[in-house]
């Protein structure tokens, strides 16, 4: 799915925007605070119904009024499609083909991933970010994932509430078979997704970083020696003391290693950026293979923290990726002086091709 037109009203500093996008490879250039990252945020918000910056909906509005709108026109194998997202003080509203829609409808129309400076959290910080990365891919390729996820979350909420209320073992244990069955189902989907992606990611990292020997291991979130149901039963008293369930796929961990060391102890921030790029591109190619959709890739501050030969390696990977790509940079210099990139200048909330 390719975004061919982007429109916005009162989104951050863009009072009015109507931008035709003719190309697959696109580069936004401009000074600090010109609005380059806000353009990527606009695309991300339209396609995922939230900001990658963690901003609340009201934080995205410009100075004109307490409201903002983003609209996109797409072209793909299913023909032209449209989507829109509008926020006002009454709440958020999504539309697809001019009709009321859910956030899930927008997510499924044009899957979108981003590589931006905050993504370093996925390597440097807790496991939540790495679980989210796996789950985003599983969601788009495995239709059984969401029903299993809803079952698991419902059972987890119920068990945690009973634990906090210090209810009887009989009441708590009544939710454990459902929690265990849906939890092990979720873990199986995650394992399958990672196993299919693992070799491709390792080979791509080796090409980008010129270093071999990478490994990815998904730990389930419960003891490898027991089933999840057995683990829940064994640790019921511990969970009762803590007031929450400590075993399950909500505690899973994706461990990334370079050789025998955890990756965050081994490589620089620039190298971390390339590892993340390899993971995102590989996952997006797997979605194309399994679901027939090449996600849109957004790369904010493309040149930051990368020596020029690493920039060249990353750009080469993005150029052969079949999906649509949007990059930002201060200027079109070095490897970005590429005739395949459609160039847009961003100045104080205005964009010109």
From TrEMBL:
A Gene Ontology term for the protein's cellular component: cytoplasm
Superkingdom per UniProt: Bacteria
Nucleotide-binding is among the record's keywords: yes
Summary of the function given for this chain in its UniProt record: The RecF protein is involved in DNA metabolism; it is required for DNA replication and normal SOS inducibility. RecF binds preferentially to single-stranded, linear DNA. It also seems to bind ATP.
This protein's UniProt keywords: ATP-binding, Coiled coil, Cytoplasm, DNA damage, DNA repair, DNA replication, DNA-binding, Nucleotide-binding, SOS response
Coiled coil start-end: 153-211
Gene of this entry: recF
Family membership noted in the UniProt record: Belongs to the RecF family.
Residues of the RecF/RecN/SMC N-terminal domain: 3-340
Alphabetized NCBIfam families for the sequence: recf
Subcellular location: Cytoplasm
UniProt organism field: Solimonas aquatica
InterPro entries, A to Z: DNA-binding_RecF, P-loop_NTPase, RecF/RecN/SMC_N, RecF_2
Keyword S-adenosyl-L-methionine: no
Protein name per Swiss-Prot or TrEMBL: DNA replication and repair protein RecF
Binding site for ATP: 30-37
Main location: cytoplasm
Single biological process term from Gene Ontology: SOS response
UniProt-recorded Gene Ontology molecular function terms: ATP binding; single-stranded DNA binding
């Amino acid at each position: 799915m390719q975004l061919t037109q982007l429109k916005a009203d009162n989104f951050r500093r863009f009072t009015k925007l109507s931008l035709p996008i003719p190309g697959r490879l696109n580069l936004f250039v401009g000074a600090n605070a010109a609005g380059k990252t806000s353009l990527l945020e606009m695309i991300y918000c339209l396609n995922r119904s939230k900001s990658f910056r963690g901003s609340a909906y009201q934080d995205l509005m410009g100075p004109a009024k307490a409201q903002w709108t983003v609209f996109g026109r797409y072209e793909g194998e299913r023909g032209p499609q449209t989507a829109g997202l509008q926020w006002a003080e009454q709440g958020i509203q999504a539309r697809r083909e001019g009709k009321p829609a859910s956030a899930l409808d927008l997510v499924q129309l044009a899957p979108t991933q981003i590589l931006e400076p905050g993504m370093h959290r996925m390597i440097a910080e807790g496991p939540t970010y790495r679980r989210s990365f796996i789950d985003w891919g599983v969601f788009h390729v495995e239709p059984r994932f969401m029903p299993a996820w809803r079952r698991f979350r419902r059972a987890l909420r119920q068990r945690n509430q009973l634990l906090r209320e210090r209810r009887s073992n009989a009441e708590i244990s009544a939710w454990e078979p459902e929690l265990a069955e849906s939890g092990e189902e979720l873990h199986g989907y995650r394992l399958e997704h990672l196993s299919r992606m693992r070799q491709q990611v390792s080979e791509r990292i080796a090409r980008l970083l010129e270093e071999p020997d990478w490994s990815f291991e998904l730990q389930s979130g419960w003891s490898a020696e027991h089933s999840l149901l057995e683990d829940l039963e064994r640790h019921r008293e511990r969970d009762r003391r803590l007031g929450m369930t400590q075993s399950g796929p909500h505690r899973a961990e994706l461990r990334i290693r370079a050789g025998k060391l955890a990756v965050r102890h081994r490589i620089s921030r620039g190298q971390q950026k390339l590892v993340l790029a390899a993971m995102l591109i590989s996952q997006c190619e797997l979605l194309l293979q399994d679901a027939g959709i090449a996600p849109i890739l957004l790369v904010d501050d493309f040149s930051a923290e990368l020596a020029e030969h690493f920039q060249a390696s990353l750009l080469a990977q993005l150029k052969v990726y079949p999906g649509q790509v949007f990059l930002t940079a201060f200027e079109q210099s070095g490897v970005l002086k590429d005739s395949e990139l459609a160039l847009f200048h961003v100045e104080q909330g205005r964009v010109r091709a």
